Amino acid sequence: AFVDGNIAGVLQKVGSRVRWGNEFFNFGTGKGESGGGIASTIGTNMTTLITDLQNTGCDTWTPLAEAYYVAMQYFKQESEDTSLDYPNGAVPCSNLGDDPYYNVDQYVACADAFVILLTDGASTMDQMIPAAYKDYADSRTTNVYGTDVAYADSGSDYLKDLALYARTIDLRGPTVGKDDLDGTQNMILYAIYAFGDDASAR
User: Fold this and answer.
1) Tell me: the pLDDT tens digits for 146-162?
2) What residues are paired with 6 via a beta bridge?
3) Is the model's pLDDT at 17 over the cut of 90?
4) What percent of the chain stands above pLDDT 70?
5) Are 190 and 116 in contact (CB under 8 A)?
6) What is the pTM of this model?
7) Which listed residue, 58, 133, 137, 152, has the most CB atoms within 10 A of its CB?
């Protein structure tokens, strides 16, 4: 597809109708290497987003749940748990302009929040999740798949737990997140598995 005569993908075709951001996996194991880091906050210009995507290699483990935890903390505007080997500053939350729900000069409450998680493999090196979220989905009556899958390389099924939590809890409510915003703020996950055929990654 083309936009303004140039080859275009989803980012270019949707363009400014959506406010985009980027997060990339950290290496996945070792001090300060858990999860991911927010490389571009929500609202970063398209040129920077695409340059980041083009210049960031895919040479890490795939800590899917840990990275989603970082994304969730970002939407909550709360710092990451550094006791679990997350790097300091993985979640930008010090300035008003970092807030994904703040646009130009005002909060935009109840804005739809989506995370597109693109991975080339199953969960690996993916255990460093705060205990409160582990097995969150298993303790409820759900149709969430994945509880009986065996993961190699210290993988986990904690992504489903975090996805359910972030979808059903107000992330900026009276007792959760920074600044209680009007309405309900949820996150919705879209996971895309590409470039492989590992059954445990589906």
Assistant:
1) 555 678 899 999 999 99
2) 3
3) no
4) 88
5) yes
6) 0.89
7) 137
Element (H, E) at 115: strand 114-119
Element (H, E) at 40: strand 36-40
Decide: helix, strand or coil at residue 114. strand
d(CA 44, CA 1): 23
Type and span of the H or E element at 119: strand 114-119
The total of other beta-carbon atoms located within 10 Å of residue 50's CB is: 15
In Å, what is the CA distance from 99 to each residue of 77, 110, 190? 7, 14, 21
Give me the pLDDT at residue 5, please: 63
Q: Which of 172, 164, 125 is nearest to 145 (CA)?
A: 164
**What does the block give as tokens for 130?**
């705060």
- Non-local CB neighbours of 38 within 8 Å, separated by 6+ positions: 21, 22, 23, 70, 71, 74, 90, 91, 92
Helix (H) / strand (E) containing 68: helix 64-76
